[in-house]
Amino acid sequence: MEALEGTVGHVLVGVGRAHRNRAAEALARIGLYVGQEWILLRLRAQEGMTPSELAESCAVEGPTISKALRRMERAGLVERHEDPTDARVSRVYLTDKGTARCRVVDEIWSDLEQRTVANLSAEERILLRRLLLQVQRDLE
Questions:
Q1: What is the set of domains in the chain, with CATH numbers?
Q2: Which candidate, 82, 103, 89, places its Cα nearest to that of 40?
Q3: What residues are paired with 14 via a beta bridge?
Q4: Under 8 Å between Cβ of 43 and 49
Q5: Which pLDDT belongs to residue 47?
Q6: In terms of C-beta density within 10 A (0-12 exposed, 13-18 middle, 19 or more buried), how is residue 26 classed?
Q7: Of 40, 80, 94, 136, which cross-links 90 as Cys (Cβ 3.0–4.6 Å)?
C-alpha cells in the first residue's frame, strides 16, 4: 500500500474525490445530485434530446439516466414529451425551474473552479489543464 501512496494515480484519485465531494456539497444545497447538473447543462445546450442521447452525451448507462430523469421530473426540473413524429420516442425538455437551476449550476462550477486553482498561477493552470488532458487521452 505504501508504494501506491506516492503514485500519480493515487494523487489523481484523491484530487478527483475531493473535487467530487465539494461539487456534491454545493449541488446538494440546491437539491441536485452529482451528475444531474450535466443533464441540465446538456439540455440547455440542446433541448429535446432523447434519454439515450442524454446518456451518451453524459457518458453514463441507460438505467443511470433513467433514474436521474425520474428524480429530476419529480423535482420539476425536466419534463418528457412524446416525439411528434414517433410515439415510441420521448424527448426531454427543461422546465422554467430547470432553466433557472442551470444559472445556479454555472455559479457553483465557477466557484468550484476558482477554489480548485486558487493557488496556481495562470501559467500553472494552463500547464495543469494540458497535462490532465494528456493523461485523459492516454487512459482512453
A1: 14-139 (1.10.10.10)
A2: 103
A3: none
A4: yes
A5: 93
A6: buried
A7: 80
| Cell 419529480, residue located | 74
CB 124 within 8 A of CB 39: no
CA angle 84, 78, 47 (to 5 degrees): 55
Q: Residue 33 half-sphere exposure, CB side, CA atoms within 13 Å?
A: 9
Q: How far is CA 46 from CA 8, 43, 79, 85, in A?
A: 36, 5, 14, 18
pTM of the full predicted structure? 0.84
pLDDT of residue 6: 80
Q: Where are the alpha helices (DSSP H) in 1-140?
A: 2-5, 8-28, 36-45, 51-58, 62-74, 96-116, 122-139
d(CA 79, CA 98): 9
Average the pLDDT over 96-118 and give the result: 96
